[in-house]
UniProtKB/TrEMBL annotation:
It comes from Halorubrum xinjiangense. This is Uncharacterized ACR, YkgG family COG1556. Residues 27-184 form the LUD domain. Signal peptide: none annotated. PANTHER family: LUD DOMAIN-CONTAINING PROTEIN, LUD_DOM DOMAIN-CONTAINING PROTEIN.
Length: 218
């Protein structure tokens, strides 16, 4: 049975002040600032609408890769990519079908250049910056340049006032939850080893941020 957020979230201590749903004015300001920084932004009401919106962004015939994201799991994208009715090349299915460790790792690296790379983010500053981190970098490696197109899906609970708050959220909300998940799933601790501050998208139309008006991910 797939791991569920409830398997570990209830036993994890986080800073709840940095995981609240903001008011409409805050969301609107965040959207305006993200767009000013070159990101395309789509605001949706719930997880079902998020899945419909995300899948509509991806044309037939392209290669698709997803970084690990609780949010993508919650909206149903991971399952749709693996089992759904689409005409994409699913790179995760290919990667996890490789038995040789070295070959699989090489394929994971190559997947960073997918036509469409989807993932989450750990914090959104109201001022327009995005913050994320990984242990390996297998998710955030695609965001700045490698992937042809990037679609980032996030709950509005990740919107915080400033970049400093976003970095704080990474440490005091996202990391404790991911660390607990890693221990439950793999028996090892996680770490904020590789960190990204995504301040601006310089290529028009390349990166889309889907903001969901729900408490999603971490």
């Amino acid at each position: 049975m797939p791991q569920q957020k409830t398997d570990y979230a209830d036993d994890t201590e986080i800073d709840a002040e940095l995981d609240k749903l903001p008011d409409d004015e805050t969301v609107e300001e965040a959207v305006a600032n993200l767009e000013e920084r070159g990101f395309d932004v789509i605001v949706v009401d719930d997880a079902d609408e998020a899945l419909e919106t995300v899948t509509s962004q991806i044309p037939a015939g392209v290669s698709v890769m997803n970084g690990h994201s609780t949010t993508l799991e919650e909206i149903g994208f991971d399952e749709f990519l693996s089992e759904g009715d689409h005409e994409w090349e699913s790179l995760p299915d290919q990667i996890w079908g490789i038995d040789d460790d070295a070959e699989r790792q090489a394929a994971r690296r190559e997947s960073q250049t997918a036509d469409y790379f989807l993932g989450g983010i750990n914090a959104v500053a109201q001022t327009g910056e995005l913050v994320a981190a990984d242990l390996s970098g297998s998710r955030i490696g695609a965001y700045p340049f490698a992937a042809g197109n990037v679609v980032i899906v996030t709950g509005i609970n990740k919107i915080v006032p400033t970049l400093d708050d976003a970095l704080d959220r990474l440490e005091s909300v996202a990391y404790p939850l991911e660390n607990e998940r890693a221990q439950e799933a793999y028996g090892v601790e996680s770490a904020i080893a590789k960190q990204l501050i995504y301040r601006r998208e310089t290529e028009e139309g390349r990166t889309t941020v889907v903001l969901v008006r729900e408490q999603l991910g971490y």
